[in-house]
Amino acid sequence: MHAINAIDITKDYGKGEVLHGISYQVPAGEIAALLGPNGAGKTTLIEILEGHRGRTSGRLSVLGLDPGNRRDFSVLRRRMSVVLQQTMLEPGMSVRDILRRHASYYPDPLDIDEVLEQVDLVEKRSALVKSLSDGMRRRLDLALALTGRPELLFLDEPTTGLDPVSRRRIRALIGGLRESGTTVVLTSHDLTEVQELADRVDVIRDGAILASGSPEDLVRGSAASTVVEFAAPGVAEERLPDGASLVNGRVRIHTDDQDTVVREVQEWATRERTEISGLTIVPPSLDDAYIAMLETGKTE
Ligand SMILES: Nc1ncnc2c1ncn2[C@@H]1O[C@H](COP(=O)(O)OP(=O)(O)OP(=O)(O)O)[C@@H](O)[C@H]1O
After folding, report:
1. Which residue ranges traverse the bilayer (predicted)?
2. Which helix (H) or strand (E) holds 20?
3. How many CA atoms lie within 13 A of 138 on its CB side?
4. Residue 46 CB less than 6 A away from ligand 1
């Protein structure tokens, strides 16, 4: 079952198409990340999926409903949540009161104490919104989004600007949503976060999907390479193995075949009577794959 099934979506704001027939699916219960450079069309697509923007053409089903239809949209608003990077909350209200008021909008809200526990804000239940740190505010935004037990959650850059501890907490919370069967659509420029959280990734460029798959698939299919590095003190640049370069005093080789390279490096070291140490093999990350993908315009 797809939580989102978009087929051939186009959007023209009046000056030419900015989405060129995008087909985009998210299976129910998965965490999906949407990536792409500035101006690629992510916000436009997400707003169309959320029902906050109309499409020019194409078919769209979100939780079995059409967000472009007014009646469906009013039902969907109760079944999904959107967490933007910045939200307006009354600074003089307490965390508890704001959650209590929000819960009253839903027929079957989560228990407020349960939500506070989930976002680790129990101790701040009586605190005023204006006294919260950015990280706590972000967790309160999430708490509000979770209160109505959404089946679908849109998260825009959920951890940008947070300290490492808050970031880890929020990531754990998002990852934990999988257990409750919530479908999550995430936009983030933090590809470590995407690699950690997302079941599937879609990359948009120039209003079209450039690549789709699991983070592992995208890394595997990309032109990004593994980096083999080691120290070989005193070695002259002209004596380096084929394809190697010296970077910050270490020998670096990019390869798709690490086993062969490691064997060749050992043979080279014996031949050159050079001692090598600190050998590291770093596989490409989603970050590397994404950059390679945008540079070459394709995944292979
Ligand atoms: N309200 C609007 N009216 C006219 N054109 C728009 C509007 N919103 C976006 N666009 C255009 O649509 C294209 C896609 O923009 P969009 O904001 O969807 O990209 P994005 O991938 O979300 O970018 P970013 O990462 O910078 O937020 C851009 O060319 C942009 O100028």
Report:
1. none
2. strand 17-27
3. 22
4. no
Q: Report, at the CATH architecture level, how domain 2-220 is classified.
A: 3-Layer(aba) Sandwich (3.40)
Q: Where are the domains of the chain?
A: 2-220, 225-283
48 alpha carbon to ligand 1 midpoint, in Å? 12
The residues pairing with 202 across neighbouring beta strands, listed in sequence order, are: 34, 212
The span from the CA of 60 to the CA of 3, in Å, is 11
What percentage of the chain's residues is helix, strand, coil (to nearest 5)? Answer: 40, 30, 35
| pLDDT of 219 | 92
pLDDT of residue 236: 84
User: Which residue bears the tokens 């935004």?
Assistant: 141
pLDDT at residue 133 in the model: 87
105 lines ligand 1 (CB under 6 A): no
Strand order, beta sheet including 226-231:
244-247, 250-255, 226-231, 277-282
217-248 tens-digit pLDDT: 999 888 888 999 999 988 888 889 888 999 98
Centre of ligand 1 to C-alpha 32, Å, is 20
User: Interhelix angle for 164-176 vs 134-147, to 10°?
Assistant: 10
Atom of ligand 1 nearest to the CA of 204: 21
**pLDDT tens per residue across span 133-171:** 888 888 899 999 999 999 999 999 888 878 888 888 889
Residues 99, 85: Cα–Cα separation, whole Å: 19
The pTM (predicted TM-score) of the whole model is: 0.87
The closest-lying atom of ligand 1 relative to the alpha carbon of residue 207 is: 14
Start-end of H helices in the chain? 42-50, 70-79, 95-103, 112-118, 134-147, 164-176, 191-197, 215-221, 258-272, 286-296
